[in-house]
Amino acid sequence: MTKKYVYSFGGKKAEGSAAMRNLLGGKGAGLAEMTRLGIPVPPGFTITTEACLEYFKNKQFPKGMFNEAVAALTRVEKIKKEKFGDPANPLLVSVRSGSRASMPGMMDTVLNLGLNDQTVLGMIKKSHNEQFGYDAYRRFVAMFGTIVMGVKREHFDEAFTAALHTHRVSLDAMLPANALKELVATFKKIVMKEAKRPFPDDPMEQLQMAIAAVFDSWFGARAVTYRRLNNIPDTWGTSVSVVAMIFGNRGDDSGTGVLFTRNPNTGERRFFGEFLFNAQGEDVVAGIRTPLPISALEQKLPKAYKELVSIFNTLEKHYKDMLDLEFTIEAGNPYLLQTRVGKRSAAAAVQIAVDLVKEKRITKEEAILRISPASLDHLLHPMIDSTEKIKVIAKGLPASPGAAMGRVVFSAEDAEQKAAKKEKVVLVRAETSPEDIGGMHAAQGIVTSRGGMTSHAAVVARGMGKCCITACGDIRINEEEKFFTVGRNDTEGGELMVREGDFITLNGSTGEVILGEAKLVKPEMSEAFQTLMRWADAVRRLRVRTNADTPQDAKMARKQGAEGIGLCRTEHMFFSEERILAVREMILAHTVEERKQALAKLLPMQKNDFMAIFKEMEGLPVTVRLLDPPLHEFIPHTLDEIAVLAKEIDWPVDRLQSEIAALSEVNPMLGHRGCRLGVTYPEIYEMQVQAIFEAACELKQQGVRAVVEIMIPLVAHQREFAEMKALTTRIGEEVMKRYKKKVAYMVGTMIELPRAALIADEIAKEAAFFSFGTNDLTQMTFGLSRDDSAKFLPTYIKNNILPEDPFVTIDQSGVGALMQIGVERGRKSRPELKVGICGEHGGEPASVEFCHKIGLNYVSCSPFRVPIARLAAAHAYLKEKAEKGKKAGKK
Amino acid sequence: MTKKYVYSFGGKKAEGSAAMRNLLGGKGAGLAEMTRLGIPVPPGFTITTEACLEYFKNKQFPKGMFNEAVAALTRVEKIKKEKFGDPANPLLVSVRSGSRASMPGMMDTVLNLGLNDQTVLGMIKKSHNEQFGYDAYRRFVAMFGTIVMGVKREHFDEAFTAALHTHRVSLDAMLPANALKELVATFKKIVMKEAKRPFPDDPMEQLQMAIAAVFDSWFGARAVTYRRLNNIPDTWGTSVSVVAMIFGNRGDDSGTGVLFTRNPNTGERRFFGEFLFNAQGEDVVAGIRTPLPISALEQKLPKAYKELVSIFNTLEKHYKDMLDLEFTIEAGNPYLLQTRVGKRSAAAAVQIAVDLVKEKRITKEEAILRISPASLDHLLHPMIDSTEKIKVIAKGLPASPGAAMGRVVFSAEDAEQKAAKKEKVVLVRAETSPEDIGGMHAAQGIVTSRGGMTSHAAVVARGMGKCCITACGDIRINEEEKFFTVGRNDTEGGELMVREGDFITLNGSTGEVILGEAKLVKPEMSEAFQTLMRWADAVRRLRVRTNADTPQDAKMARKQGAEGIGLCRTEHMFFSEERILAVREMILAHTVEERKQALAKLLPMQKNDFMAIFKEMEGLPVTVRLLDPPLHEFIPHTLDEIAVLAKEIDWPVDRLQSEIAALSEVNPMLGHRGCRLGVTYPEIYEMQVQAIFEAACELKQQGVRAVVEIMIPLVAHQREFAEMKALTTRIGEEVMKRYKKKVAYMVGTMIELPRAALIADEIAKEAAFFSFGTNDLTQMTFGLSRDDSAKFLPTYIKNNILPEDPFVTIDQSGVGALMQIGVERGRKSRPELKVGICGEHGGEPASVEFCHKIGLNYVSCSPFRVPIARLAAAHAYLKEKAEKGKKAGKK
C-alpha cells in the first residue's frame, strides 16, 4: 500500500480530524475538525507533513502526491461548482502552511491562486466587479512573486505607491480597475526583471510551485530561528493546505477578522477580536490597516455576527479552551478559515484555566497542566511602581502586559548587539516583521507605531511573555537618524526628541510609554494565580526551597511559598564595606593567631546575619553553606585598589602585591576553595559554625526555633567530609553546652564534583543530607568553564551540537546520570538520606521534573522562581501519574 | 579462651613459624623458623603484634601478657642455665622490635638488658673480663637511657668522648674497666638529670619499660614517615622479641656480622657480607666503625666460617630467595639473630630471580612476581655517559647503583625544601640516620663520608632505588658553613671547596663523586632483564604502547618494547622556533582566509613530523591526537616578548596586547581547547588531518606502512565527535584519492571528561576507539587543578585525607569508577571497541593492574616506563590467575 499524502475536507465531510495534528499540521487538522462539526469552512485539502519530509530528501514531490492533490482539487471543484483554470468559471485557492506547532507568521501563504489573464475575466464576470477582480489579481502576482519566486516585496510596494500617486488616491480600495490592471502588468514585468523568468500563467504550474515554496519555507531563515527559540525540531515539517478562496474583499458586506474567544491578555471571558471590512486576511495580520473591534461587526452585519457567535461558542465548548479563530465573511456569509488554541499572556492563561475549572469544562489537574511553569516567569516580573511620578510621553495599545525598561534602539540588530553586551534595550519600530524576532527576543520590550492587538509584534511578544505596546501613533520614528519624536504632549509644548540610547519605560498593561527609568515593583499575585498554586501544592511531592543569602530574600521567598532555604551562601555576607577589611586581614594573615584575630572581628557580624535569616525562616530548615570561593576573590586586583588596601593595613605595596600574586590560581574553579579551605584553615569554618550555633541558641532564648542544616562544600572524599563534620559537631556541641540550649541541626554536603556522586555511598555514611550543586557539577562534568564558554558555545548552538545550554537546563544524560548515581548510591548507605538541589537548575521546569523523577526531596531556587518550581513539581507528579496510568492500561 | 600473646623459641623448639609473620613480625617469625630448622639461635620469645595493638587502646599491656612473658623468660633461663636478675649467674636479653614489613632502623632495640650494679659483677665473674662487663653495662645504660627514657644520645656521646680524652685513647675498646665503670655512673647521672627520674635497677622493671618503649616506637616520627613513604598501614603494629644475649664483644674469637647470600647490588651468586671482630651488632649497622669483608672471617675463624656457610646455604634453600642475615659469633660459636629476605637493587633483583629459575628453585611466574614493576624505574634511570670527560673529585663505596646529579645540600631539611621547589639536589652527610629519610627521599642521590655497604644510608638508598656512595672519606664536610673540601687530588694541587648549591654528580655503581653536571645516558639492559621481560611478555594480556611526540622518543620506546604509540601530541611540534611564528599568525588571524594562510605554512612541517614518526613505528599503530591546548598557550605573555612579536608581525603593541588579553581565560583547563578548537576553527584540524594522511600516503609510496589512529580530544558530546569524525573522514578520503593510496586508519576519541565516560554508549556508536586521558579526567572528577593543588594537597596528605596522589596512581573509587562505566557503556554499543589509557597513570603499576582488571586493551606511557608497564601487566594477569585459582579451589 502506498502512503496517503492528501486529506480532503469540505461538503460536511473530512478525511482528517483534530487528532491528526502531527500529520496535517494545526491548520489542516483544524479545518478538518471544523468541517466534521458542521461549521461553514471552504472546501479544500491538506498535503501531509510526511510529504514535506519526503520532499526534502530529494527536493521533489514524493511519487503520487501531486496526482492525489489533483484528485482532491477535483472534489473541491465539484463542491464549489467551479473549475480550476476555467476562464469562464474559475476556482481560486489559497495555499497555506501549517505545522504541528503554531508558528505565527513564520511561514508563507499564497492567496487567489489560479488567476491569469483569462481566469480573471471569469472572476469579473461572476462578481460583476472588475475592480475586485484586478485587485485580487494584483495581490496574487505580488504575493506569488514575493513568496514563490523570491522577488523583494519592496519592488511591488514601490510600484503600488507610484500608482496611488499617479491616480492621486490615498487608499488601495480607491484605485480604479484599469489602474489595478496596469499594476498587474507592471508587477509581471518586475517579476521578469528580478526573478529572470516569466510569471507562470498556468494555474497547475502555479499550484505546483506554491506547494514547493511552502515546503521550502520550513527551512526559511525566520522559521529556523523561531524553531530554535521555541525548541521545535526540524524534523516535524510543515503541511500544506489548499483551500477554496473566500473573498472578504468583495464589498462592504464582506470582510475578514480574527477573534480570541476570551481576552488573551487578562483571560476575561469576553470575545476579543478585530475585523476589517472589505479586506483579505493578510490585511489584518500584517497590521498595515488598523482594524475595528469585533463589536463593529455586530452593528453592521448582525445576522452574520449572530451566526459567528454561535460558531465561536460551539468551537470553545468542543476544544475546551480559549481559541484563536480566523474567519472571513463573503457577501454576508461567514466562513471559518482557521481554529487554534489561542496564545495568551501568562496571567490570562492562569485566569482561563481557573475559570474553565469553575465552568466545569476541565479538571483541576488539567488546569495545572495547562499552565507552562516557565510562563509564570512573566507573571513574576516587576511592574511599574504606581506611587512614583512618571512622565508618560505616548500611549498605544496594551498589546502584551508587564513592564520593561531600557535604552531605545531602532533595529533588531542593534537590539541583539547591545543585549549581547548585557545592556537592557527597548526596541522601537514602525512595525515588526518576522525578520525581527531575534531582536524582539533580545529586547526588554517592544513598541510599534503601527499595527494592532493582533499584529505581528503583539502576537509574538505575548508568546515570548514580553511587554509590548502597538499602534502607538503618537511617536514618529526616524530610523535613519535613530531618534523618535512625540509631539506637543510635552508640558513645555514643543516636540520631544528621544534618541537612541535614551532610557524609556513601557507599561504593557496600559499602553503607556514613559520617559526615563521608571521604578519597577513586583507584581501582586492574582486570586486565580493563588488558587492555581494551591491546587499545584496539593498534588506535588517535591518540596520547594529557596536560595537566599539575606533576610530580605528569605522573607520574599517565604511569601512566594518557599518551604525553607536550600542554600544560604555565607560568602556574600563577606563583601559588605564594613567587613571586607577584616576578611582581607584574615586572608593575608601569616599565622593561625593573626587569622583568628581577624576572624574574631567577623564573628559577631556573621552571627547577626544568621539570626536575621533564621528569624525570617522560623521553623523552616535553613541550609547554610560554609565558605566556598577561593580566597583571592575577596582581594583587590587593580593597582589602585591594592594601593588603598596597602595603606589600610599598613603594608608596603610591593609586599601586598606579591602576597596577592601568590594567592592567584591557574584554574580557580578547580583550586583552593570549598572545604579545602576548611581543611587547610579550620579556624575559618570554626568561626562560621560558632556564629551559626550562637545565632540559633540566642534565638532559642527568645523563643524562636531555628532548624539548622550545615553544608560542607566541594567534598571529593569521604575523609574530607568526616573531618569537617567532626569540626562542626565539636564547635556546635561546645556552643550549645555554653548556652545550655539544644538546636536541631544536621551536617551534610554539596555534591558538586563528579567524584562525590560516584562515591556517594561512602559520603552518605557520614552525611545526613546531600544537595546537588549542579552549577559546578555541570562545569566539571562537561569540563566547561562558565566564564570562558562564550568563545565557543555560540558555534556549538549554531551547529546544533548542544541544543540546550547545560547551565540553564540539566544535562540529563551526563550531569543527570551522575545525579542518579549519587542518589542511588547515597540512599544505599542511608535510606533516609535527604537529597536536594541548589544549583540554578532548581527553578527550571524541565530540571525540576528530572529532580522529581530521580527521587529528590526538594529543589531550591531563587526566590523569584519559587512559584515556577512549585508548579513544575506539580506537573512532574501529574505526568508521572499519567504515565503510570498508561502503563497500567497496557497491562 | 584468652588470647595467646607470647610465642617461645629456643632449644630446637619454637611455638611460632615463618608463616606467622603478621603476628610475630619478620624478626620473630624468622627466629622461630630458624629454631625449627635446627639452626643455632639464642632462645627467647616474641610478644605479638596483637598485644601491641591492644596496648595502644589503653596504653597498657593487655591482661595476662606480661605474665606470659615472664613464663617464657623462665623457659629461656632453663635453656641458658642462667637467671634473669641473678647477681651470680645473670641472664641478659635484647629487646627488639619487628613488624610485618621490614623497616630497617626505623624502630628501636635495647641490648644487654638485665644489667645493674649487682648482675654486672656476675657477668664479670663468668667472663673473667671486667672490661667486657662494664663495656656491656655502659652500652646498656646509654641505649636504655636514649630509647626507653628519651634522653638525647648526644649527652652520652659527649661524656664518652670526654672519657676517651681523659684516658688519652682513641678507640672504645682501649678504655680500661674502671673508666667504663665511671662512665656507667656518669651515664646514670645524665639520665637522672635529663629524664628527671633514676635509672631503673630492677631487671623486671627494665624489661617492662623496654617492651613498652618498643611498642611506642611504632608511632615514633621516623617510623610514621617511613610507613607513609612505603604505604604501610598504621594498623599492623610491631612485635617485640626478647632474646637471650649473645656477646660478639667478648674478645677476638667473637664478633658480629651481617651477610647477604648474594650480592645485593648485582645479584651475583656470592656471599656478600661484613664482619666486625669483638663488637656488638649495633656497631655494624650504625656504620661508625668500618667493617671488614666477610672473607676476613674465613681466614681468622675458619671453623666458625664453615659452619656459617652451611647455615647460609640451608637458609637460602629453605626460603628460596636471597637472604639478609645477622649473626654473632660468641667465643667461636656462631648464632643467627635474624633472617629476612634481603633488600636488593633492582638489577640484583632481576638477576637473582632469573638465576633462581635457572637453579630450578622457583618458576618463571614466581620470578616475574618477585620483581616489583616500580623497581624497574631504577634500572631504567640514566647512567653517566662514559664517553664524556668527567672530573672525579672523590671516591667512596658504591653503595647503591645508578647515577645522580644535582646541587649539593648538607641537611635533610634543605634537601626537602629545595626538592619541593623542583630543584635537583644531592644530599652530602657524614652519615645518615633514620631522621634523614625525608631528605633522602627528596634527594637525587646521597653521599656519606662514613659508614659502609650496610650502613643506614646504603640500606635505605637501595630500598629507595636511589644512587648512594658511602664511606667517602676523601671529603671533609663543614656542615655549619655548608661546604665540603676534597684534598690535593685537584690538578692544581690545592684543596677543592664545594659549596652548597654547587653541582655534583654521583656514580653509584663505581663510588665516584664528580664535580659539575656530568652527562647522563640511558642504561644498557642486562641479559637477565631481557629474559625476564620476555617471560613477562609471554604471560601478559594487556598491550603496552608509548606516549611519544618525536621520532627520537618513538625509536627509544620501540626499543623498550612499545607496541605502538598511544598518544602523539601534535602541539609539542608547534613550539619549535621556526614554527611558532606561523602558529601565532594562525592564532591571531581575524578571518578564516588569514588563518588558512598561516596553516598552509605549518602543513609541510607537520607532514614531515608525522612521516618521521610513522617511519619509526612502521607497522605499529600510531595514535595522533589533534590539537588540544588552549591557543593562548602559544602566545607570549610578558611585555618584552609581546613587543618582539608585535615587531615580527608588524602590529602595534597595544593591539597585540588587547588581542592577547581577549584570548586569556579564567579557567583554561575548562576552556576553549580540545575539539572545541576543531569545532570553532575547523581549518586547524583540517590542516592536521591533511598532514597526517599526506605523510601516510607518501610513506606508502616508499613502501612503508603507517597504521593511523586519529584521536579527537576533549569530547563531551557525541555530536561533537561526529562532526570532527566527518571532517577527518572527508579530508582523509580526499588525500587518499589524490595520492591513489589506501591508508589503514581509525577515528576515535579521548575520554577525559566525566561526561564522556557517562555517555560512552552514545560516543561509541561513532568512535572506533577510546583512550582514557586520566590526567584531565582526574582533574575534572576531583575538581582539582594540578597547577593549583600544591596549596592544599600537603595538608591533605598530612591529615591522611588523600593517602595517595591521584595524579600518580589512579583513584580507583572515583576516576576508576568512571573508567569502568566508560568501558562498559562503550562496549555495549560497540563490543569490539578498542580501549586504552594515555594519561601518566599508564606506566604506574597499580594503575596498570587496574586497567587490566577493567578490560582495557592497552596502556600507553612514557618510553622510559614501557618495561614497567610490561611487567606490571604480567603481574596483573598472574594475580588474576591466582585469584581465579583460589576461587575455583573454594568451590
Task: Provide a concise account of the structure shown.
The structure is a homodimer of 891-residue chains. Chain A has 891 residues and is of the alpha/beta class. In chain A, 46% of the residues lie in helices and 18% in strands.
Could you explain how this protein is built, in words?
2 copies of one chain form a homodimer. With 891 residues, the first copy, chain A, is an alpha/beta fold. Chain A has 34 helices and 34 strands. In chain A, the strands form 7 sheets. Chain A has an 8-stranded mixed beta sheet with strand order 15-25-24-17-18-19-20-16. In chain A, strand 22 (483-487) and strand 23 form a beta hairpin. In chain A, helix 4 (119-127) packs across helix 5 (130-147), helix 6 (153-166) runs antiparallel to helix 7 and helix 33 (845-853) crosses helix 34 (866-890). The radius of gyration of chain A is 32 Å and the shape is elongated. The mean pLDDT of chain A is 90. At the A-B interface, helix 25, helix 27, helix 28, helix 30 and helix 32 of A face helix 25, helix 27, helix 28, helix 30 and helix 32 of B.
